[in-house]
Amino acid sequence: MKTPLAIFLLATSLAVRASVDDSLKALVTVGREGQGNEAASIAWKELVKSGPPALPALLGAAGKGSPVADNWLRLAGDTIVANALVARQPLPIAEVEAFLKETTHLSAGRQLAFDLLQQADRTRADAIEPSLIRDPVQELRRGAVQRLINSVKTEDAAASKATYLEALDAVRDEDQTKFLADTLRKIGVPVDLPRHFGFLTKWNVLGPFDNTDRKGFDTVFPPEKEIRLDAAYEGKGKTVKWQPFESTDEYGKLDFNKPLGMAKEVTAYAVTTFESPTEREAELRLGGKNAWKVWLNGEFLFGRDEYHRGQQMDQYKLKCKLRKGTNTVLVKCCQNEQKEDWTVEWEFQLRVCDPAGTAILATANSPK
Amino acid sequence: MIRLLSTFVVLALSFPAFAGDWPQFRGPNSGGVAADATIPAKLKIEWSAPLPGRGLSSPIIVGEKVFLTCSSGPRQERLHLICFNAADGAKLWDRQLQATGRTMSHPKTAVAACTPCSDGEHVFALWSSNDLAAFDLEGNLLWVRGLTADYPNASNSLGMASSPIVVGQTVVAMIENDSESYSLGVDANTGRNLWKLDRPKAANWTSPVSWRAGASSTPVVVLQSSKGLLGVDASTGSQLWDYTEGASTMSSSVVADGVIYAPSNGITAISPQSNNAPPVQLWRSKQINPATISPIVLGGRLLSINGAGVIATADIKTGDNQWKLRLAGPFSGSPVGAGSRMIAVNEKGLVQVVDLAGAEGTVAGQFQLPLNGESKELVLCTPALNGHHVFVRADSALWCLGEE
User: Fold this and answer.
1) What is the residue range of A156's domain?
2) ipTM score here?
């Protein structure tokens, strides 16, 4: 009798696993504009019905589709844990924790693992969080850094200095970095923020070109066809030439008003080179409140025609691949016709980093 | 018989939410008025529920449940749709997703800026990051979209705030901004696009409303922008009529008895035609400036609050100006009304009940919400009404107010 029962249980387990796999496949493959939603909607219910045993496989699927697919998975995990807590069902805490600790897993899955752990067992999550201070996922580092900052209980500068320096070495978020830089400077410790973040500060700039009626955004001016630093071009009302310009701003802002003069309805370019010792995946992170376009090694990455709605660091994250050796970064930045005080800015900031926000420092960053 | 049946089907599809529900931004038909609610003059807190994140979206009420969105995390990247028991404020569930679009906004606003909507069976929630998700009333996901993932330049660095509506089987979302600007009709059952309209490239925080020629007519979606108002077939996206004299990009229109009262050159009363001919202008009052606040129609008059906190009123038939009353401002949320009372909550959390029964409006009661002084939170939402209760939120809490 035992053998048929074992076979039945194994068959049932395999069938459940196959059902979970089918459901996960339907969720991971949802496409643009809701393609696959009908199947995903059915699969989501099946997955949730599978309950806590589905969680490890669910975590493994996260990051394999689009960010929208990850939300289908996240909401399934969220619901499974919530239902299990209400029903007092056991949850695979150890497996979720093990998944989180394995840094070779995809970041979306690991981030979800930590969130589900927080939801299911806050004490376990609190115990693990300090160990995430060097984590390759930027979002997972934050809590650990904050715990380190909060651990400083003394006014003694010398005693707190080591802790703050340790936190600065790990920190990637702007607000926490600013706090640490301000605190350390007060006790006489210099902090090189452009280097910490990886801002590109040495550029050649060219302009102004015309942007009347905001048409300059789509107009292809010469730098979009060739980069010749010794060339002269017909700009807006005058001949324009490339000129070197170095930003001294702590957050790498390149203010075109300084080299080119304050002007309206104009377009300008900035170009720089970035020496990378290896070919690698990277992110160009840009902040700016003017319309802009970015090219890396002649390849258009992204552009946005919005003016004066706000600026913040890492406002836009552009995934890219750095080539080994010299990389050329070209930025187009447009100023519009608005005359209000808050529309004076004609600037951008750009840094090179990995997905965790860790600066990728060039072996050389020079205008040319 | 067939005609009667089709009339019933149209009505059922258009208003499937229960009577007494407050199913979307500004309640039934986006009018800001609850026909079967009452507003007590003297208020007290019946219950309060702590919130996990920021928001200025309004609560909606479906049956015995209150639904509210929040956004938490250092970049407000965690998006919540939370369901509360309307009777006691107990949290029934909290579903969380991750923003797939940009979460940057002006510090005063938040990613949870758009009020969800419901067809009585599902809740459709939209956030400033352009993530749009549909759940049943028990918190089970029906579908989820990332509209910035689909259309990468659709965002506003100040923050988006337009609230979706559901008309028949179509969820209508206005994703209008300076760059990739569009409005979308989404199949309520599948989340797939039914239609997508390119829209003026300009920031727009107004919300769509629905209008119908008569009780048995197919509802028309009205999309407002700086250009004016566009009437659109809800199920196909066909453009039916166009009013081109400009309109606000912040204050939304209100529809009452087949007339659209639009924040256009002050307030303009517009009557669309059943044959889709250009709408007829009934009256225009440039003396009424709704600024960022959406007007309501109650008791035969239009009521609008301007940037100085002054209520201006006009006869809805003629546009003739009536009384004015200064309230304590400033306001970000719009007023709502029921019976012969209107309620407005200013940014400092002062709830003001205005009696409209007399020849001129009077303040009948005030109640101060216990805001979190440490965080300097503000009340930016439009309240919701249900029965004898008023629901209002800030960042820290959702309050249910009842009669003292």
Assistant:
1) 142-191
2) 0.93
